[in-house]
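Regression test case RT-17, inverse folding.

Input:
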């Protein structure tokens, strides 16, 4: 009787251990599935953030290149405007010089005309 009770006790304990081991494996499997699901969910967000970062880096590089090209073009435009301004100043200088020469020539022509008229009037007839 005692040996039968011992065997029954050992059999129940063995069943409990097996049941406990089965539940432990199920709990580990469930925890693993949960962990993988959480990691997968986080990885989707991380992957999206990574892709967004790559796109931003590409856009920044493109913008830097375009800004450099624009700065170069703007510098060329400024140079062209400065050259144009200089040409306008030179045209203004030439115009002033031409006016001055014209006034001098008129003065000389008037003086020569008076001299010529004076010579005609003083000449013996």
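Golden output:
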């Amino acid at each position: 009787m005692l040996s039968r009770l011992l065997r029954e006790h050992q059999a129940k304990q063995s069943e409990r251990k097996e049941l406990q081991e089965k539940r432990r494996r199920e709990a580990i499997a469930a925890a693993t599935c949960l962990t993988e699901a959480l990691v997968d969910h986080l990885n989707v967000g991380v992957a999206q953030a990574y892709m967004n970062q790559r796109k931003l880096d590409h856009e920044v590089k493109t913008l830097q290149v375009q800004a450099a090209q624009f700065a170069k073009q703007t510098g060329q435009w400024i140079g062209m405007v400065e050259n144009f301004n200089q040409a306008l100043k030179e045209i203004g200088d030439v115009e002033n010089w031409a006016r001055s020469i014209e006034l001098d020539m008129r003065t000389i022509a008037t003086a020569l005309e008076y001299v010529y008229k004076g010579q005609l009037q003083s000449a013996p007839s």
